[in-house]
Amino acid sequence: GQQVMQIPQYQHVQEGEDFTTYCNSSTTLSNIQWYKQRPGGHPVFLIQLVKSGEVKKQKRLTFQFGEAKKNSSLHITATQTTDVGTYFCAPSGGYQKVTFGTGTKLQVIP
Amino acid sequence: GAVVSQHPSWVICKSGTSVKIECRSLDFQATTMFWYRQFPKQSLMLMATSNEGSKATYEQGVEKDKFLINHASLTLSTLTVTSAHPEDSSFYICSAALPGNEQFFGPGTRLTVL
C-alpha cells in the first residue's frame, strides 16, 4: 500500500521553540498511532487517535486527528534536547498491522 | 509496558551465509508478531506478519523464500535471512502486540553482510 507522507522530513529547532510534524494520507484512516524513535533505538509508542477531530495531549505534546481522518499532526511546545529523535505516524489496519509514515527527524539545538 | 527482546543485537556475516534472528515476547503471549526492516535514514518497512502456528503473511515485494519466518510458539518468532548479500544489510526490528493494544518493539538487530 501507499506509504503515509510526513512533512517536514527534517527539522532543526532551537531549544525552547515549538515543533510540528504533519502526516497526510490519500485514503481515510481508521486510526493513527504515533511513535518516537531515538537515534540508534527502536520505535516507542506515544499515542493512538481513533475519532475524527480527536485531540489528545501528553504534557508538551499535542496530537490531532483530522476531521476527514486523512491527516494528523504532532505539536511539541517548547522543545527540549530530550525531544530529539524521529517521529513517525503509523496507521493501524487489520490484525493490528502497523505501517509507518516517512517520518520527521527532529534535531534540537541547545 | 510489555517487553520484547531480540537476539542477536548485531551480527556480521559473510555473503552467502544464512542468519537467524530471534524475537521473544518476555512477559506476554503474542499470537501475532511483525517484522520490519529499516535502512539508514529511512522509515521502517513492514516485511511480514508472523502468525503463531501458521504461515507468515508477506508484504508485497518481500521474498518469502529469502526471509523465512517461523512462529513456533506464542512467545517466539524467528526470521532467517537466507543466502544473505550486502544489500540485505539493514536494521531488522520485530514487534508484538496485545490484542487491541499498542505494539511493543524489540531493540532491533543490526545485520551487516560483508
Q: In words, what does this structure look like?
A:
The complex is a heterodimer of chains A (110) and B (114). Chain A has strands spanning 5-7, 10-14, 19-24, 32-37, 43-49, 55-58, 61-65, 71-76, 85-91, 104-109. Chain A is mainly beta. Chain A has a 5-stranded antiparallel sheet, with no helix packed on it. In chain A, a hairpin with a 5-residue loop joins strand 7 and strand 8. Chain B starts with a strand and ends with a strand. In chain B, strand 7 and strand 8 (76-81) form a beta hairpin. Chain B contains no helices and 11 strands. With 114 residues, chain B is mostly beta strands. Chains A and B meet through strand 5 of A and strand 4, strand 5, strand 9 and strand 10 of B.
Task: Provide key terms for this protein.
heterodimer; A: 110 residues; mainly beta; 0% helix; 50% strand; B: 114 residues; 4-stranded antiparallel β-sheet; 54% strand
Side-by-side strand order of the widest sheet of chain A: 1-3-8-7-6
With helices defined by DSSP (H or I, 4 residues minimum), what is the helix count of chain A? 0
Enumerate how many helices of chain B there are, as a single number.
0
Mean pLDDT of chain A: 94
Largest sheet of chain A: 5 strands, antiparallel
Radius of gyration of chain A in whole Å, from Cα? Answer: 13 Å
Assembly type: heterodimer
Instruction: List low-pLDDT spans of chain B.
Output: none
Q: Identify the overall geometry of chain B.
A: globular
Rounded mean pLDDT of chain B is 92
In sequence order, what are the helices and strands of chain B, one letter per element?
EEEEEEEEEEE
Low confidence ranges of chain A: none
